[in-house]
Amino acid sequence: MESEGLISQQEKRLIKQKLTIKEPTLMLLLSKQQEDTQIKSELLCYVSSLQMTRSKSHTQEFGSSKKQGQQFQSQTIQLMDQLIIQLKCMQQYPNHNITQEFKSKIEQLRIIFNSLDQDEEIDYSFIEQHQQNYQQIKQRYSRYMNSLLELMDEKVEPKDIQAFLNTFLNQLIGCQSYSFIILKDQKVQIHQEDKFEEFPINKDVIDELVNLQQITEVHSLNIIKQYYQTSNNFILKLTDFEYFVMQLDPNFMSFVILSNKYHYVDSLIELAQFVIYTSQQIKVQYFSILSIGDTILEFGLEIVRCSKYLLIENILQTINKQYQIHEIFENQSNVVTLKFKDSSSQYLFATNLDLKKQQDLLIYNTINQIYQRYQQFIKQCYERMQFYKYFLRSKNLFMIDFDKQGRLRFLSRALSQKIKTQFQIDKIQIDSTYKQIFTSNHQMLQNIENYISNIKWKLTQQDEDQNKQYEIFIRKEEKQFKGFTLILLENEWVRKKTQPPINGKTIRKQLLQTETMDYIKKLEEFNPDIRNSVVAMYMPQTQDFNPIAQQTQKTPTLVFRKIDKEQVVGKNSFFFKQREEERRFMKTNPNKFNESHLILKEEDNQLDTLEFNIHLIKSTIEKQRIVWSILERNNFNQIFALPQDKLINFLNEMETQYNMNNNPYHNFDHGVAVMQAVNCFMKSLTKKIDQQFFNNITKFCLLLSALCHDVAHTGKTNAYEANSLSQLAIRYHDKVILEQHHAATTIKILRDNQTNILCNFSDQDFRTFRKQLISNILSTDMQEHFKMLKEFESRIEQYGNDPEDLSLLCGMITHAADFNGTARKWPQSRLWSDKINQEYSAQYAEEGKKGYPQQPFMKDLDKLHVMSKNEIGFIKVIVRPLYCQLNLFGKGAFQICLDNLDETIFEWEKVYQQEMKALQQQGKPDLKWYIQQKAAQNVKERLYGYPSHLNQLPVQTQIKYSIPTEFVGCINDQDQKDVIKILKFTHLKWLAKNNSFALGYNKINNQKRQGHLSIFDLNDWKLFYKKFANDEAMVGILNQEYLNKVFGIGSNGGIYTIEKGQGGLEQRPVLETKISQITEGAFSPNHYKIAFSSQDKLIYLYDVQSEQKETLIGHGKEVYTVQWNPENSLIISGADDETIRLWDASSREEILNLKRHNLGVKKVRWNRNGSYFATTGKDKQTLLFDLRKLDTEIFKLHQNQVDTIFWHPKYQNIFLTGDANGSISCYNINAPTEPMYIQHVPETIVTDLALDSSGSMMSVIRAKQVQPDQKISMADQISIYKTA
């Protein structure tokens, strides 16, 4: 019947569905013994009845089931369906006569048509308005998941997450910026993006904030409004102590305003609390965006669900212009009702629509259809979210999702460099297409195209590949292509059968090692600076060899550091014998700790809290008494029968051993503080968890381990001990040197008869105690930190009575207590940090003096901005994650520590900001002096052939006589009819002699750029060129003026050269730097080094002699331009992140970081004596910076993007610029208000210009702007001018 045209494909599918469920009417019809003609006729009638039922139900979605208009519509549809069926039968069977019934139905239809108002005009503007509202809302919310793409970078900084939160809120609720208010410690704290303010709480503030009942405009509040000067700020009450302020987009305020009416304020509150929490957390810890990816998707989906109320409100406002609408709470008979219902809510609105009128019926059905479609859209968003969340949790799989236009829709996580290399992925950006992402991977593109073009979308080809590295999944709905998903794996899919593990502990250990290294790898990926911070001490030792780093280090002198006899501990040692006489008179010596000091005091209650401050105690005897008090308060002196005289001797010995080296940090104070912290932690755990983790001997061992964990500390790190080949390093084979030394010293003291407080232990008890004590002390080894953290994290949920679990928990508590100083209140924390940094600074100085390798993080710790930044990173990466895991295990037992850590991070951040601000305000003269000093240090570089310029160049005031303006001639693309090959001129450089200039251009062939370097001789008007090898594109020209030579820079790091008279053949590079994605290059003054900018956000320094490269940290986005100061080692760079950075190439330090442009920086150029530099940007501005005065001048004279800039070779006050509007402008920096426009050529782009060494000749590259319908995108020419 389908092939005969009697039924459609949809009707055929409907019959098959009914046949599958054995619908009684259909089964009865088919059971009759009839001819085919009769069966077909009855089937057509059956299909008609099904369609009538469906149509009827469809029109009843929103209203009452027995409305007059719907009955009228149903009757009309039924009558027309019956007539259509009879007409089909008459057409198929010509012998079938016209019946009276058919004539009767025709007459009924005529009467119906006549009853309609033939003069009624339908206003389709209402329908169009509804459709437009639907499309706008759907388009806004369909791409909320795409906002995650902003964070899919290998390095995500807090500012990137902050920017993402702003984008996320703007897209979902129209919030352009936000802030939050917290009532804390009797103060009102206002946290804004760029500032923090607080003021005391008073009654007026409480009345104003606490009594808020709904979303309120800030300007209606008397006190808070003075802190918000802009309009459209609304405040949302989260709790009595927390408030969220949103600056709403004037064009999209309705979503937030409607939240009260449609009761989704709770959804906004939860979203705001998540934003506040994330804003605070990014300041106190490093974390991957993947850790909150699930939450982002879920909050976004909840807002998308609520967005249907925005659609409902738009529908009501649109039809309310002509019809009466009011809300009702139950169905009413004989009233047209709009019903908006889902699984969680229902809203009914009565209207005076007349469904007998064609327009009203059309509006009614359109509303019905739009709402149902939007409900389906919400369902699809939910399904997509579930699909995406699976890959967000995956550790090994990368999912890239594309829509039906081939645009990137979602990326599960940032692609690693390994994946990019493996699949030849160039760059991923928002709205990139798969063709742009895989532009270099032709095989991948071909496979994707094959799958998309395959009609049936079967994956038979890849199923046969047993070693495939990716999967392609095509999405389709009702046989319509809806996009595809690409799933990548760093390594090939594993299909080999593996043997079951023989030893479970071995497998678990290997798994933990793998997870630990993965964790560290990710930590370094997102925070590459940590390798040069204090965190480096906590990294596990690896066998990686860095030859470059090895070359830069001094060869250490083999010095065996002697240890005094007093440091050698043993029963028969000189040290013990020397003290025998003192011990005899110890009881009567008031200056030594003795029995008379063994008393409990009222203030000892503070020993159970972190409020205790060891720094307030000046007496050594009192510190020893505190140790005794902790043991006494825990009743351990009685439980373990600790001999009083031996305990006194033990504490005296501990104090002596700790303080023998006068360490600022690792002294007896530190040991006592760690012991007291362990005492707090044990009590807090016992209080929070109704479970006894520790028996008495374990508690005693923990306390004693904490006290002794750093005894006899040398005040240096393990790295120093190993590098200096000390006696300790030799004794312990460079492994866990100091920790083994502390444990061994403790055991030796405990074995001495005079100080053996464990003398009443049995041999078995002592061995058990000794084993746990050593384990606890060794757990403070810094290089075991990450391994221990991951192992504890894996056991939190399954913690049991296993001895290994207990040992791990004791190690974690001891390790965390070792950082107790950082986890205390800010004043204490600051003091402990000062002390440890004193030790680090002293070690750094001694390492430098003796030629040992130095730790980078120990440098300049006497400078507050350096130390504060170091402390922030240390807490975020090391300390806070440790306490987080313990707090999770202890169900909040360590929350006070986390609060203190967060406060400390904020305080260090304040210190850092204050120091940087002070340096900027007070340090301008110092900065200028510093730059001048750096120039003086590198004066030797000017002795290698480069002509040294005078400090002051001549100044020209008559600009019109200084600039070439008289046209000489031009060089064109001679074959502009050739569509396949187009010449694209890129760069110009004049040679110092011979009246010629170098020209760089690319020949474009099938979207590939083939670089060429050429020399144009003005004497005989000839062009000599050489083609780059390896399909490299031309990206820049280097000029050696004193040698009269030029070098071309290839995009993949090849350096090419050409001389006059040469050319024609493809040329191999004279130097291969192996640096890819280059955007520009510049010689150092002595031409021994080249600075490169690149698309991968980095700046490279390449040494031509050693052929080694070094990397500067770079920018946040693609670096467009880099230039070397002509007089010294200063480098200037500009990037798409709008920043201009000044570097010292000799020390690799950043000197200045400027953000003066509103869009990306296109070019930076020094003047000839290096005293000024000028920059141009996409924001049409030209910026001038004076290094001597350290101020800026901004020129806003271009009408379009500025692409090039060139300083006059003779006069230090003149420079020229060219823009995308075809204009060349000349500036006199001494008279910025009087520019001279040389010329303006419409429909052209000035991409580069250059003057010769005398300033009398100028060449200009102009790219002609061609209309979009033309085949050739650009036709370039080079114009040549001379002075008049």
TrEMBL record:
Keyword Ribonucleoprotein belongs to the record: no
Classification via InterPro entries: HD/PDEase_dom, PDEase_catalytic_dom, PDEase_CS, WD40_repeat_CS, WD40_rpt
PDEase domain boundaries: 578-915
EC numbers: 3.1.4.-
Enzyme class, broadest EC rank: hydrolase
Cofactor(s) for this UniProt protein: a divalent metal cation
Single GO MF annotation: metal ion binding
Record-level GO BP terms: signal transduction
Positions annotated as WD repeat: 1112-1153
Coiled coil: 127-154
Cofactor notes: Binds 2 divalent metal cations per subunit. Site 1 may preferentially bind zinc ions, while site 2 has a preference for magnesium and/or manganese ions.
Keyword Coiled coil in annotation: yes
Keywords: Coiled coil, Hydrolase, Metal-binding, WD repeat
PANTHER family: CYCLIC NUCLEOTIDE PHOSPHODIESTERASE
Family, similarity comment: Belongs to the cyclic nucleotide phosphodiesterase family.
Protein name as catalogued: Phosphodiesterase
